[in-house]
Design a protein that fits this description.
The protein has 15 helices and twelve strands. The chain has about 400 residues and is of the alpha/beta class. The strands form three sheets. A six-stranded mixed sheet has the order 2-4-1-5-6-7, sandwiched between helices. α5 packs across α6. The radius of gyration is 24 Å and the shape is flat.
């Protein structure tokens, strides 16, 4: 098989920082279900974590196991004592109110938390309830979307103007310095978008040089972060499969650069969680039956968050352990090896691997690679190989890695 090499001319830079330890933050107004969603995902993570160490990093941060049938299949075949799935790191961010960009409410705490995450779950309320009060005393999801986006754009605009002013002052102080034309074209475009409440990540098609310039000049912009819009419906409307607010929400998202919109119901998910915790199998079946073949949306949320962060993972599998190792998309074999240990990257010799599909098609239920090798599906790859999602990997490296060869 041909080696998959990193494409040089096709590669388009991305906003933000590439890496394996990235986080999604739950953002929204107060009283819309952010903490309830966070707790549901935390509970599911702890339930899934029965066989491996789990820790909550601090009160508002958790990690959720990424559901994957491939990982489960490898665990079933090898049945090792240690099993480690991939995780999505999640942050419950303080509620935002109008005026937060000027410090109203918990505005400053909110903005410091959101600047520390790499992607956003933008949660919006789309259910009527007298018991759950709304900060603006009425239900209007589009107004709520405008409020959050406006505050984020205002904060970004203040940051952009500060950065621009600092650069232009440096040039005035030094006559030999000159700002390139792209500085002005990019900053003008950014400023116009933010003044019109358009998120930078989605409001326009950026060229690769423009993305690089933005990452250089204004990497701290909040609206550069990838966003998934989560619509919290009532259990009744979620069960029926329709909600009177969904159409207007999707129209708003489409006019603000587009993006993924996922309707779900925290009320339904909490009811399901109670039944599962009580081990009420019949009750769980009856509740799921109301969805006509659909199921809990929580696994999809975790997968979507992981994908938005441009993360993937490869597997290592053996008698002692089956494990998912998270890497950014496009990681080469040495970079992927470095996730296990820096020595693996420094002393990288080669990678032995096969795809998950090739393993399942050829291993004949054996706990080894003998049949896969016999079928010609076990490959040796060098340092330019781009590791693919779901590869089963074994790295060979020089233990004295990093030392100069003489």
């Amino acid at each position: 098989p041909k080696t998959t090499k990193a494409p040089k001319d096709q590669e388009v830079p991305r906003f933000g920082r590439p890496g394996a330890n990235l986080k999604m933050g739950i953002v929204g107004l107060p009283n819309i279900g952010k903490s309830s969603l966070f707790n549901l995902l935390s509970d599911s993570a702890q339930a899934d974590a029965a066989n491996y160490p789990f820790c909550t990093i601090d009160p508002n941060t958790t990690r959720c196991a990424v559901p994957d049938k491939r990982y489960q299949k490898l665990c079933d075949i090898w049945n090792p004592p240690s099993q480690y799935p991939a995780h999505l790191h999640l942050v419950d961010i303080a509620g935002l109110i109008k005026g937060a960009s000027e410090g109203a409410g918990l505005g400053n705490a909110f903005l410091s938390h959101i600047q520390a995450v790499d992607g956003i779950f933008h949660l919006v309320r789309a259910f009527d309830s007298k018991e759950v009060t709304h900060v603006d005393d009425s239900i209007d999801p589009v107004r709520d979307l405008e409020t959050i986006t406006s505050e984020l754009c205002k904060k970004d605009l203040a940051y952009v103007l500060t950065q621009r002013d600092a650069r232009e002052k440096d040039v005035k102080k030094n006559p030999t310095m000159k700002l390139p034309p792209m500085f002005f074209s990019v900053m003008d475009k950014v400023q116009t978008m933010l003044e019109n409440n358009q998120p930078l990540a989605k409001g326009s098609e950026w060229t690769a040089p423009e993305v690089e310039k933005i990452n250089e000049l204004i990497p701290g912009c909040i609206t550069l972060k990838p966003t998934v819009y989560l619509v919290n419906c009532s259990q009744k409307s979620f069960t029926v499969g329709g909600n009177k607010y969904i159409k207007s929400i999707k129209e708003w998202v489409n006019t603000h650069g587009g993006g993924l919109v996922i309707p779900f119901s925290i009320e339904f998910e909490e009811s399901l969680a109670v039944l599962r915790k009580a081990e009420d199998v019949d009750g769980e079946k009856a509740l799921l039956a109301t969805l006509n073949g659909r199921g809990s949306v929580l696994p999809r949320l975790v997968k979507c968050g992981y994908k938005q962060l441009k993360l993937q993972y490869y597997f290592t599998a053996g008698e002692k352990e089956v494990r998912c190792w998270t890497i950014p998309e496009g990681a080469t074999a040495p970079q992927a090896a470095g996730v296990i240990h820096t020595d693996f990257e420094a002393g990288f010799i080669k990678l032995e691997c096969c795809s998950f599909d090739d393993f399942i098609a050829n291993n004949k239920g054996e706990k080894n690679m003998a049949n896969v090798k016999a079928a010609g599906k076990y490959r040796q790859e060098g340092k330019n190989y781009v590791v693919q999602d779901g590869d089963i990997c074994h790295f060979l490296f020089n233990k004295a890695g990093g030392g100069k060869k003489k």
